[in-house]
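Now for a concrete sample entry.
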Amino acid sequence: MTQPATAAFLDRLVAALPSGTLRARRPGELEDPRGRYHGQAAVIACPGRVEEVSTVVRMCHEAGVGVVPLGGGTGLVLGQVAYDGPAPVILSLERMTAIRAVYASENVIIAEAGAILTDVQAAAAEANRLFPLSLASEGSCRIGGNLATNAGGLNVLRYGNARDLCLGLEAVMPDGSIWHGLKRLRKDNTGYDLRNLLIGAEGTLGVITAASLRLFPRPDHAAAAVFVVSSPQAALELLAMAQAMIGDGISAFELMSGMGFAFLSETMPDLRQPFQSPPEWCVLIDLGLSGVSDPEERLSALFEAGSAAGLVSDGVLSQNEAQRQAFWALRENIPEANRRIGSISSHDISIPLSRIPEFIPEGIERLGKIADIRVNCFGHLGDGNLHYNAFPAKGRSRAEYENVRGAVKACVHDLVAEYDGSISAEHGVGRLKMEDLERYSDPVKLATMRAIKTALDPKGIMNPGAVLRQIDDQFE
C-alpha cells in the first residue's frame, strides 16, 4: 500500500522543482465524467520537461507515494480517478504539449504526451499527412492517455489501434529513470518490446512523456454513406461485400440502431437525420481513396450490389464534404445523447464478428428479465467493438434502476464471456473494471501481469489501484 504525501514530502517536492510546477486541483477536476466518483490529490504536479517528470516520480518512489498520470481526463473507467487510499500526487502532462518534429518523408511525427489529439492531427495535416486516430473526445484527450489506454476510435478497421500507430516512446519508469526509446523504426527486433508493454498499461508501469507516431498519405477523395440494413447479420454480410469490392479503402464501418436515432430525436431534435422514419438498423460507411478512384461511384456500386443481394433497403450517399460530416455528426452525437438520457450501465465490449448477430438479441432478452430496459447498441462493426448500453424505460429515470445496476453489468459481461469476447474493447480497465478483469481473465495472464508489475514497480506507486488490485503486503 502506498504512503500518504506528508507536508515534509511536499516541501521537498516544491524545493526540487521549478517554481509553479505544483498547483492545487481545479473545480470539477479529477471527477468521473459520469459523475459517480470523485478523485483525490495530495497535489497536482505539472512538469514541463521529461527531466521534471523524472524528478517527481523518483521522489515519489523514494517516499512510497502514489503517482497517478493525468492526460485529458476523458477516460471512462476511472484510470485517472483515485477515489480511495492515500491521496496520490497527480502528474498532469498539460504543459508537455510540443510537437517536437515532423518527418514527412518518413511518415513520422514526434509529439509530447500532453499534446491534444486534434493538435497532432493538425500538425500532420500541415505536412500533408494523416494521423488517423479519431475519437469523440479528440478535442480534449491527450496523446499520452490515448497510448496509455491503447485507444481505438473510428478508424481502427483501416489503421488499427493506438498501439499500431506508435513506433517509439520516451517514458519515465517507476524508479524515475528515463527510457529514451523515441525511435522511428518500423523494424527493431532487439529483445523485449517495452513500447508495447507500456502502451495499454494505463500508467501502471511508467509515465509516457513523448511518442514517435506513424503518419499516412492523405486520401485524395473521401465520401460516406448511410445504408439501411435489415439486421446486424445483413450488416456483416454487407461489410464482407464492401471489403471484397473496395478493399482497404474502407476507413470505417459503423453500426447504428433505431434506439440510437430515437435518443437523438429525444435529446437533439434539431439534429437533421437522413431518414424520415428511423430505421431499425443502419450502417455508416466511410471511404478514403487516392488517385482516380471515385468513392461516390464505389459507394453507389456497393448500394446496388447490396440491394440486389437483399442486404440494403435504402441509403443516402454524401455529395460533398459537408454532407459527409453531417453523417458523422449523427454517429458522433450518439454518446452525448446517451449521456443526456442517462445510462443504467454502459459496456465497451468486443465480440467475434460472426457471433455479433446472435449476441445482440440474446443480451436484450436477458436484460429484459431483470427490468424494463432499453438497449442502445452501436459501434465499430468492422473490428467487433460494440457499445452495448442499458437505459431506463422511457419516462423513467436512471435513479430508479440503481438497485439493478450491478445485475445489468454482470448480465452483459457474463454473456460476453460466454461468447469468448472482451469486457473492455477500447476504454481500458482502470479502477472501474478491475474486478471484472479478475473475474473473466485467464489466471495465467493475471499472474503474469502481476509479476511484471511487481518487477517494474516493486513499491506499487504507479497509478495504484488501477488495472490490478493493490494487496497490502504485495510489495513488502
Observations:
- The CA atoms of residues 220 and 291 lie 7 Å apart.
- The radius of gyration is 23 Å.
- The domain at 343-433 is CATH 3.30.70.2740 (Alpha-Beta Plaits).
- The chain has a mean pLDDT of 95.
